[in-house]
Specification:
7 helices; 4 strands
């Protein structure tokens, strides 16, 4: 599994899908990468700028690929936004259009599903110096990184529905993501 870090000038921010990663990519570009920000916010004309469809703007597009990356250890601080693994899993199912949760869990159990939305967030644990909880620490993270608050909300236009997980599915997710649960609980 790949580890990537957004370049937030004075910190490396782990790219942890379904844990505000799109929001952070946009906010980091706005705060720390003015050339990229100008490129994505300049209206079309004169051969420059971007023409977005109706209802779409630089603040509604996911900019993971355009947000500069940095190597781990090249800046003094590494940050990770940690999300409750059960909630993150349900959001990833909605993101990917997963309708058969049990089949997905079967694939994850044997390692045949490599969708990054389902990669364990604990893969960063050995690298991480500072943890921020998705459900309570985003404002603190924004302050620490010099990002404008409130952060932009990057949401899908088709507003997918999260699956209603059964207790059996929650138990399987908890087992598959046991290290993520431990990491999340360490932030309490």
């Amino acid at each position: 599994m790949i580890k990537q870090y957004f370049d937030a000038s004075r910190a490396a921010v782990a790219v942890n899908y379904k844990s505000a990663s799109a929001t952070l990519a946009r906010a980091i570009i706005a705060a720390h990468h003015p050339d990229i920000d100008r490129a994505i916010t300049t209206p079309p004309g004169g051969g420059r700028g971007i023409a977005y469809p109706a209802g779409v703007s630089a603040d509604t597009v996911r900019w993971h690929a355009r947000c500069p990356k940095i190597d781990y250890g090249s800046v003094p601080h590494t940050l990770l936004v940690v999300r409750n693994p059960i909630d993150r899993f349900a959001s990833a199912c909605a993101e990917t259009g997963t309708t058969d949760v049990d089949a997905l869990l079967d694939r994850l159990a044997v390692g045949t599903d490599n969708n990054p939305h389902f990669w364990p967030q604990s893969r960063y644990a050995e690298d991480t110096l500072m943890l921020y909880r998705f459900d309570r620490d985003l404002q603190k993270l924004a302050e620490d990184l010099g990002l404008l608050w409130p952060l932009p909300q990057i949401i899908r236009h088709d507003n997918p529905t999260k699956p209603k997980l059964t207790q059996s599915q929650i138990d399987r997710i908890s087992a598959l993501y046991a290290d993520d649960l431990t990491l999340y609980q360490s932030t309490e």
